[in-house]
Design a protein that fits this description.
The complex is a heterodimer of chains A (266) and B (776). Chain A is 11% helix and 43% strand. Chain A is mainly beta and 266 residues long. In chain A, strands 2, 3, 4, 7, 8, 13, 14, 15, 17 and 18 form a ten-stranded mixed sheet that branches. Chain A has a four-stranded antiparallel sheet with strand order 6-5-9-10, with no helix packed on it. In chain A, a hairpin with a 6-residue loop joins strand 2 and strand 3 (50-56). The model of chain A is unreliable at 14-19 (pLDDT under 50). Chain B has 776 residues and is mainly beta. Chain B has four helices and 51 strands. Chain B has a 22-stranded antiparallel barrel. A five-stranded mixed sheet of chain B has the order 9-16-17-12-13. The longest helix of chain B is centred in the N-terminal third of the chain and has 16 residues, at 2-17. Mean pLDDT of chain B is 87; it is low at 9-23 and 108-121. Classes of the chains: A mainly beta (266), B mainly beta (776). At the A-B interface, helix 1, strand 1, strand 2, strand 3 and strand 11 of A face strand 22, strand 24, strand 44, strand 45 and strand 49 of B. Strand 1 (22-25) of chain A pairs antiparallel with strand 50 (756-762) of chain B.
Chain lengths: 266, 776
Amino acid sequence: MMNKIFSIPFVAFLLFSLTGCEKVISLDLNTTAPVIVVDGHVSNQAATGSIVRLSYTNKVQSDHTIVPVTGAAVTIQEDNGTVYALPEVSAGVYRNEALVGVTGRTYHLKIVTNGVTLTASSKMPVMVNVDSLVVEDFPNFGKTVKVVTPYYNDPAGRGNNYNLVLFKNGRLIKDVFAYDDAFIDGRKVTFPLIYSRESDEFKKGDVIEVVMNCIDAANYKYWFSFSQSSNGSPVAIPDNPVSNIEGNAIGVFGAATCQKRAVIIP
Amino acid sequence: MKIRKAVNVLLLLSLFGNVQHANGQKNYSISGTIKNYHSGEFIIGASIKVLNTNYGTTSNEYGFYSLSLVPDSYQVVYSAIGKMPDTFMIHLTGDLVQDIKLKESDYTLTAVTVVSSKASGRFVTGSQMGIEKISVQEAKNIPVIFGEKDLLKTIQLLPGIKAAGDGNSGLFVRGGSTDQNQMILDEANIYNAAHLFGFFSTFNSDAIKDIAVYKGGMPAQYGGRLSSVLDVRMNEGNNQHANVSGSVGLVSGKLSIEGPVQKDKSSFLITGRRTYVDFLLKADDKYKDNQLYFYDLNAKLNYEPGKKDKLYLSGYFGKDVLGFNNQFTTNWGNGTGTLRWNHIFSKRVFLNTSVIFSNYNYAFKVKNGTNDISIFSQIRDWNLKQDYQYSINNKNNLRFGWSVIYHIIRPGEITSNATSSINDKVQDKRYSCENAVYASNVFKAGKHLTLTYGSRLSAFTVLGGGGFFRFDDRGNIIDTTVYAKGEVVKKYYNLEPRISLGYMLNTNTSVKAAYTRNAQYMHQITNSNGSNPLDKWASTSNIIRPQLSNQFSVGYYTNIMKSAYEFTAEAYYKEMEHVLDYRNGADLFLNETIEAQLLFGKGRAYGIEFMLKKKAGRLSGWISYTLSKSERRINGINQNEWYNAAQDRTHDLSIVAIYQLNKKWTLSGNFVYYTGNAVTFPAGKYQVDGQTAYYYNSRNADRMPDYHRMDFGASKQLKKTKKWTRELVFSLYNVYGRQNAYTINFRDSKNDPNVTEIVKTSLFRWVPSVSYNFKF
């Protein structure tokens, strides 16, 4: 979070100085044999339950069509107790609405597909309440933009991690807002969510939804490294996010507490 | 290892070998100071050549020279770049003091013949290799971006030295990274030589006399960085007449005032530079609350208390400021101070003692909503050193000395108000001592052979207090040990041999070879693409070991057509140990356990550099070409296999031409071509939680597009009066408007978010500039 806040002036300066010098090009890129991608979630929301999406990596120069991994056996075990099966509800989507996560419990994912076994574990953290969601003005180089700021109190003691997701008029904004509490431990947090694309700019009447997920440390590491080096416009050297999946796959499995807040841009 | 051992043994043998036996006949010395006739400033690197012999020397950093010869009659030629040579008949019957004042050579057509015999650039004679020198005088006609004369950008046109990016003043030297260059301004270390993210360097050319870049074969008095030493020397001020000079350009204005305090005895110089883009921004309502500027201040004072002593006090202060609506402001800058005392003990022993201070810091303030936060980080050095130069006899010139540097790093300090979102945090200060002793002898072994051998012994002491961590393989803390202030945490020692030899094949041609070992104790922590002022320095610690390099180089040097042309070729092989890289997903920002984010490994770089230079005539300039490779092997990256360093550029070509059209007009042009940097492009893509992600499988296996560019420049001497000199300088950067790629990113298309588009961002197309320079 901190480096995001403090890189703002630099990013803004560079954007300002680079205006108008962008050009869409084509490149001959290397390709690779498809790799399995795990996108697994255990939610504390009864409406959501647990969902695991399995896919293969696709060519860069293709549309975003997902290549599903079908016919996998997916189970999640809660602590050392019940094993829940996640049946395939649509191609590559495995779901069990009955498995609702509980704070403090650890969830063990197991996937068996084409003779490959993948495992991962994640502990559902304490839920931190979003007190309010506020629209604020944010200065940029040469203009002021509207941003939304979730207000919440970070519980005292290290170990709280957050992954916030932004929707504008129901459409996901493709930016990652992953924070740990290294700097904010025990504080009232009022940092705005600053999106990176001009095309996402908030206008009057836009409905902005914020989902705050409280996540474990391994999930934070995943999303932080994702935001640094995997989103196509890396600030660090490009690389794959640090995955918590054991086995020959990429992606992440996380048990998260979620809450949603919405606000209309005045 | 075997090679290294053998070299060390050789070194010890040779130290005993030959200092003694040259004393058969009594030697007398010719010594003195070489100065500029018009300004009284000393001349660095002036050549002193005894005609029809192999004897000669060059003036040192303070214009002093000393040459020991057996009694005889000699014809001695004193020459320097841009100066008229002077020849003296000398009958040597005892020690002789010969102070020389060289006149400026007039750049009119008749006098343009050999302006720079042996003194410029590379030397055919002697054993020093891997050096590039450029004076402001030489560089002034070469076009650069924004018309802002900048030596760091001009030296990028020389072989083996590459720009860190389009319009960037950062340097990659012989496959090394930007933090492996030691940039010293009047001996003071400059930790961040970049203004405005590297588009300008901190070296204001109006304050600079010259710059010497050592890419290999570093003399033993230098140490502390793996790849190069950039020794930048400030002007010291005219001790004959007072002058005011300055320039008004598109980006910045400069003003210098210099003159004698007491004629012939003391002088001063003050030079300032400030950009004024922000004044233009202020005029625009949209930008009026933003701040964006930098300034520099260079000052120097020197004083000659007596014939044998000279004192210099010099300082630099620079600052960048960037802010938005008073809600975000940041500033960063260097400050240095150097006090030097030259003392001539006898005609043969010259001593320089320096006390040096260097500081770099940044401050960051956020006042946004209920947040009021300040962040501060600083690195500060105190340095004391002595350098002795002893002209033993006509065959041996010994240089030895010592240096002590005390580093204090404040890695990060956060202060905030009660209602802000973050906690106060002051990270433990880091203290360390970097010491060195060195000795090196230049031995004229015969009429054709010159041998320089010596060594530097460096020592680094990591001092407490504060907590020092230990980590496991994955970067998790195992334990923390707290040390009291001043307590020794760890010590490192490195012997750094420096050996070179030069052999004259004939009067115009020589071959040379060198072996150099370097140790680096201070490391820049950055995994961003460009120069970021928040990139911080970390000292060697219990975890971070000193980076080491061994470089072997060979070279061929020849003067062609009565020295009108010079052709040189150098090849090098450099191996590096304990170079730094970063764990995937490393969080470097104000991270207390920064060492947990690091990975360590090896590097290797090799290449061959060619340069053909035309030094005389109306048309001068050079063609330089480098073919090279630079690789890294780091445990934890790229399946532990060798991969290309980002700065690996296979081909690098520069052509520079300067044409003196007539007395008024000088035209110039550059052409630059290089292979694109090694980068990592994705090999696949996927979706996680609705976010588009890219899959990478090989580090730096791809290439940016090739870079090329042409620039033009023209300068017009306006009407000269006895008092005024005025000049208009025009330049056009990137003449044919090539859109060189600065970054290549992958993103969802704006029109169809379901499709990936590849976006090339380029920075500078057709940057014209004009500046007006004056002097009175």
